[in-house]
């Protein structure tokens, strides 16, 4: 699992992602994702988890706005760039190398779990894992590109049908005590980077409404 603005792999394979990031000095735009800035605008800063943080733009943006951020990614190359970006911005972020399924993360501890353009294999039951991390009253934000071309994706070595999509994040999948909005189609604008060719997002926002849910 990793992302930012684009990108998928079927495994949390650290060597695969390190090789990918090492191909370029910078893969993504360096700007926070537009949907994140919109969805977080009405939230009180608390503890945030950025799943698949890539080169760290979202995590750094959250940290500079008062969030206590933990950022997760399997690529050490990406995380080193993220640390550099955080240092330049004067932001404090806890960087964790690993995949969602295996990372040692405290249950129900995050007021925001942010998952942008994830490559989370459905066989690992990612919805249940993500739900387990959200604190009572907290928000799970899952965003993916709209109109993914499956044939083109298969040519690049992954099958979108095997990966988490926004439509998989439903109240039924999350369990009792959730209010879910979406998937909603939203236009996006990216200045550059590998995700610049995608023009629309699908956004799901799920709030844990019941402490025991």
UniProtKB/TrEMBL annotation:
Pfam family, one: Methyltransf_25
Every Methyltransferase domain range: 49-138
Organism placement in taxonomy: Bacteria, Bacillati, Actinomycetota, Actinomycetes, Micrococcales
Recorded superkingdom: Bacteria
The protein's name: Class I SAM-dependent methyltransferase
Entry GO MF terms: methyltransferase activity
Keywords from the UniProt entry: Methyltransferase, Transferase
Keyword flag Ion transport: no
GO biological process: methylation
